[in-house]
């Protein structure tokens, strides 16, 4: 059910916000901090909010990136079996030293790539990493589907059975509440997956040439983002299903799946160490591409608006990543007793950005375009040089009505859940 909702929302909600932000970026030629103000005086707050999102996401993202590096090192050094033991993950994140050390290494890698600049850094590394990333995802996905495992009771589970669970929607027992919960999860994932409402796509648009076919670029982003997201689930779900006895609870998302369940799956395989290395290399590549994009968005803002050079901007963002990232890295250990709305620092930063700031930025962007400057301004930018806009009816309807409503629902339900008013 989640996959169906995600695909439908990607083709409607995601497409609309993606188109709007890239068009604003190219039309103004400005970073997010000033692009919205240039669209209409008095609406610059959207840019400030959007620029703040990457700065808050990056630190906790680097903390999670440190977890990935830790697990990759464990499999590389032949300690994958220990990483699969009960209590390994909890024991690691509750320490004082290691979470900080691995986070610092991850920050250094990210900052080094960004420091080299867009052309020498992001584009150069992306041309190498992205094809490798795609090949690894496809390869492990095929391998995952072909897996077969017989447990101690003689029951055989296969990857194909897991594939059916993953791809075929199951409406049995579906209630209004459970359906809304799935939709909210899909919307939340979509925000982060396509990088909207965080300034990145406005920055991307500001770099785009005037003769660039925006629809072609947007369709490519939309297609490959959805494809990679589907393949990511395809390489995980069938394998977890086959080696976990078919327990649906083991297929739940989150850190438990990535750092507890999956290492156990690898430990059950004959080639578990090799597959584990490939898997965490893959996850590391995917994480780095995201953190590099987030860092570039923040660094470019300081460069464009404050006139700082790349060195100074990167150092400042790096310091913010380290300081706030340390709170996330220590939030389950020495700082476990310090919570915000009952959440550890990492969970709170994730809630603040994904469930509050990004929906607010999305709502404000929709209102700015549909009620203040007019949808026609975006249409003019998309159709520049006579380029076609075949999905214009979908764009208009979503931007005027459904997009702000969906974003408002995410905001309201997330805040209500955090305050204990409702249980999601």
Helix content, binned percent: over 70%
Which blocks of ≥5 consecutive residues have pLDDT under 50?
A: none
Number-wise, the strands total: 2
The count of helical stretches stands at 17
DSSP strand content = under 5%
Radius of gyration: 22 Å
Q: What string, H for helix and E for strand, traces the elements in order?
A: HHHHHHHEEHHHHHHHHHH
Structural class determined from secondary elements? mainly alpha
Shape: globular
Please give the largest β-sheet: 2 strands, antiparallel
What's the arrangement of strands in the largest beta sheet?
1-2
Q: What number is the mean pLDDT?
A: 86
- C-alpha termini separation: 17 Å
């Amino acid at each position: 059910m989640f996959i169906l909702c995600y695909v439908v929302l990607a083709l409607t909600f995601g497409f609309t916000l993606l188109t709007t932000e890239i068009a604003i970026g190219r039309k103004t030629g400005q970073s997010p901090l000033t692009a919205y103000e240039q669209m209409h005086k008095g609406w610059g707050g959207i840019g400030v909010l959007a620029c703040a999102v990457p700065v808050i996401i990056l630190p906790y993202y680097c903390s999670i990136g440190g977890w990935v590096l830790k697990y990759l090192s464990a499999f590389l050094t032949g300690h994958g079996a220990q990483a699969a033991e009960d209590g390994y993950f909890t024991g690691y994140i509750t320490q004082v030293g290691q979470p900080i050390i691995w986070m610092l290494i991850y920050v250094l890698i990210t900052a080094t790539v960004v420091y080299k600049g867009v052309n020498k850094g992001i584009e150069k590394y992306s041309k190498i990493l992205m094809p490798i990333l795609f090949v690894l995802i496809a390869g492990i996905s095929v391998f995952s589907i072909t897996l077969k495992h017989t447990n101690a009771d003689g029951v055989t589970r296969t990857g194909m059975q897991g594939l059916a669970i993953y791809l075929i929607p199951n409406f049995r027992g579906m209630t209004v509440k459970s359906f809304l919960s799935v939709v909210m999860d899909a919307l939340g994932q979509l925000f982060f997956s396509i990088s909207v409402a965080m300034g990145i796509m406005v920055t991307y648009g500001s770099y785009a040439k005037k003769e660039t076919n925006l629809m072609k670029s947007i369709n490519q982003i939309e297609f490959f983002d959805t494809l990679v997201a589907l393949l990511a689930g395809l390489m995980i779900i069938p394998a977890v299903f086959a080696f976990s006895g078919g327990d649906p609870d083991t297929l739940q998302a989150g850190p438990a799946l990535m750092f507890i369940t999956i290492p156990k799956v690898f430990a059950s395989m004959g080639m578990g160490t090799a597959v584990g290395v490939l898997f965490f290399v893959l996850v590391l590549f995917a994480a780095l591409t995201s953190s590099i994009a987030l860092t570039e968005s923040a660094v470019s803002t300081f460069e464009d608006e404050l006139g700082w050079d790349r060195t100074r901007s990167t150092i400042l963002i790096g310091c913010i990543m380290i300081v706030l990232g340390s709170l996330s890295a220590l939030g389950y250990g020495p700082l476990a007793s310090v919570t915000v709305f009952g959440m550890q620092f990492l969970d709170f930063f994730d809630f603040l950005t994904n469930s509050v700031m990004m929906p607010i930025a999305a709502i404000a962007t929709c209102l700015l375009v549909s009620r203040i400057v007019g949808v026609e301004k975006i249409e003019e930018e998309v159709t520049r040089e006579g380029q076609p806009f075949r999905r214009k009816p979908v764009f208009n309807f979503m931007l005027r009505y459904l997009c702000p409503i969906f974003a408002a629902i995410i905001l309201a339900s997330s805040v209500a859940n955090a305050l204990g008013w409702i249980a999601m």
